[in-house]
Amino acid sequence: MKDKIFSWVETHKKLTQFISTKENAQQDLIDLLKSVGIGPFNDKAGPGEHNIDLDEIDPFTFFCYIYKYGTKKRLKYLQEIAAKLNIEQPLGESGIPSAQAQKVWLFSYKYDRNNNEISRLWSLFNKELKDQITDQDFEDALQIRSTGKTKLTEALFYVNPEKYLPINGPTKPYLKEYLQIDPKFNSYTEYLDILAKVKDKIDIPFYELSYEALKWNNERKKVNYWIFQGNPNVFDFETALRDEILSDWTVSAHKGKIKTGDKVIIWITGEQSGCYGFAEVVSEPYEKTSSADDHSWKVEDKSALKADIKITHNIVDSPILKSIVDSREELKDLKVGNQGTNFSATEDEFESLLGLAIHKTKKQYWLYAPGENARNWEEFYENGIIGLGWDGIGDLKQYDTRDEIKKALVNAYGGKGSKKNAVLANDDFLNKIKIGDVIIAKKGRSELLGYGVVASNYKYDKNRTEYQKVRLVDWKQKGNWKLDFRLVLKTLTDITKYPSELKEYSTYYEQLLGIMELNNDLEKIDPMNFPLNTILYGPPGTGKTYHTILRAAEIIENRKIESYDEALEIFKTNLHDQIEFITFHQNYSYEDFIQGLRPETDNKSSLVFDKKDGVFLKIATDALFEYYKKSKSKEESISNSEIDLNEAYLDFIENLKSSDKKDFKTSSGSTIHISGYTKNDNIEFKHSNSARNYIVSTNRLLKLYNVYSDIESIKNVHNDIREAIGGCNTTVYWVALNEFISFIKSTSNKSNIDEPDNEKYDEIGYESKKKLLTTIDLDTLRKVNSNEVKKYVIIIDEINRANISRVFGELITLIEPDKRSHGTIPLEARLPSGDPFIVPSNLFIIGTMNTADKSIALLDIALRRRFEFESMYPKYEIEGQEIYDVNILKKINKEIIKSKGHDFQIGHAYFMGENKDLVHRMNKKVIPLLLEYYMNDEKEVKKILHTAGLTIEEDSWPLRITGTND
């Protein structure tokens, strides 16, 4: 070779020849990798923990194992392998693409390998050696899960770097921008066409071009950070953001520095000045042309240049106002408020504001006093509001800082104290409370009154005589709950992070809500009320997979499951039935997830399209079919019984009146009794320890029966009954419904009735389900309550790795709860095949994302808007489980947080399990992860290990600790 940095090419040729002899001795390849220190080789017999060894491997994955490491390490391993095989040892490894450390394999885990995946990869390898690869061979390899076009071109490059060029992250922009060659391809033939065009354009070997492309990308300027500032009197920025049409910005300064890829803080001036979003620059500045938002200009557009932007985080409905920014030390130098449109910012300022935005979007829980001694409670509940006093200081929007609020309070009410609680209450009411937050109303320090959800931004109502600072609230519960513990005295308190002292609750707000969600029988509400769309996020080893399995089992069982082993068994039993588990990757597409159309020729040689449904469409169809089954079951029940409900009710009342039975059991096992009947034959019930009568009306009971003709269909007494008939004493209605159902069953002539065949649909095939669903309209399906049908779960591991827009397409909107089958505005779409599609309300989506791979802040905004996010960060104490060497883990994470942030911490799972050997865990798991985090920066990793009190083995590489630590 002319240059030692490419001497690896000859090594690869010889290594490829060696590998070609090992198709029937694949363990030899695994052992060779192990012999030089490469690993791990953990396979899975089922979802969950790694529990078996990998015993088969393909040639491409063999190379990927070597190149998952950093520059020095992979060269060392390649040299050691060459030495063992007595072939030429390389002096460099420039131009070789890296394999993703957590996506090394070109195949799935053993439990998911069911179609000769590894044999098919060997077949592709052997055909490459003979120069016999066809489009069909290439397409077949792409059908293997964990294999995509990028990964496959890299794999072919590994085995023949003179013939192939990887079409990956570094080469795509190089080809497109530098060589003016479109890097897109869909077949092997199209891939070869690209390679031919490259050869025509540039006369260097592909392995050298791979290196040049990498250098070209690295030499491009680093990301700049900007503030794009706008005046709302000149342009209607808020409407443009809400309508999602803001796509460019005027450039009047820094026009030579603003470039594609730069990050932008969108700042709007005026009375409500603040950060309203974040964006990315997607074009260099250019001369002004027309835009979709031109109608938003309030004055003549005099700008000469503008740059296109892509909104990444739209927080127009929850902006970070200047009053918040001014209170943050790290934002004290933020260049906002001056005349102009473009100002420089720092990465720290950008990340700080982005962190505030993310924090603001999380639901918070507030304990609130509706006036002195709750004197305004009835009015606030009736009008659906909360109000704040201190009317003497007027509209809070006139104050930019807490200090200004404090001065106003002192001027209005006198005194010299800090007025800390009053300042906080007013500031929180204006700036912290947001739409979606939960308000828990209290009276004094020992009584709860109800709770609701915030439904509006802050308003100042001049028409009110008092409590003029208001927000709309959708009150969900009202009552009086006496407490045996003391509440905080303040008017308004953020209790989101308060822990609970009771074992059955993890947080204080859950404890308070749990108390209010007890009916008059102290019957607790079913706690299984998970969001339809959830993403669990956190660093590696924090239990995300563990919790997805537990969550999925609890959803389909609709009960709390304490044992993980039980949850895992439920998970395994229902996998590929009520539960699906998939992993996103960079090449995952709409065709994989929803539906693809493949061209074929029929017997007459005419072109037809064969549709292939993806995993999401399949499980969505299965879930929606549950409503069909229940609907048909109800129709058959009505047809068979031919009951006149009004007549049945009259008979039921007469039977009750003539019966000696007066006492009845509630769903929780306590007793209530009939105290009488009204002149309209409504039933009066009374609790055994109460003098109050509760009426069950005829009309509401029959309405309830039409929704729940089977008492077992009611899973949550409080919520299900109220959803069906509105506010009521759900306990007495449950008792009345139970007795009415029992009466109807007992009086039906069952010998002359064909029972509905509830099992006839259980074995029906997927295509038949699709056909049957076309025979029933959505309105009929919506008559079936979601609590009456089975629930389904799709788990999307590494959800952040895929291009969300490409995977979901236009259907991303349909996963929103209110757009689903039983939402308030159900939306139906047409698939590429023309089939109708709607996302059912009994399908739960659980995603996981590794924050060390991609920060939650960088997620596609379309995804962020439609999912609830649950953080999974390291724990240092877990009840009933042991975490070893907690102090060391804490010290390591403290150092990581300082240098890289919270998202790169080491998870507690690395310090749990059967192996208690600290040295083994550190050397085999933790240190390799640290080296990956810090790009093999030996100095930085050593610093972390020393700070944690660990002794490093002298002159070791990779770094190792000794067994003589304190």
Automatic annotation (TrEMBL):
It holds the Pfam family AAA_5. InterPro entries: AAA+_ATPase (IPR003593), ATPase_dyneun-rel_AAA (IPR011704), EVE_domain (IPR002740), Methyl-DNA_Rec/Restrict_Enz (IPR052934), P-loop_NTPase (IPR027417), PUA-like_sf (IPR015947). This is AAA+ ATPase domain-containing protein. Signal peptide: none annotated. SUPFAM superfamilies: P-loop containing nucleoside triphosphate hydrolases (SSF52540), PUA domain-like (SSF88697). It comes from the Bacteria. One of its GO terms (molecular function) is ATP binding. Residues 530-877 form the AAA+ ATPase domain. PANTHER family: 5-METHYLCYTOSINE-SPECIFIC RESTRICTION ENZYME B (PTHR37291), TYPE IV METHYL-DIRECTED RESTRICTION ENZYME ECOKMCRB SUBUNIT (PTHR37291:SF1).
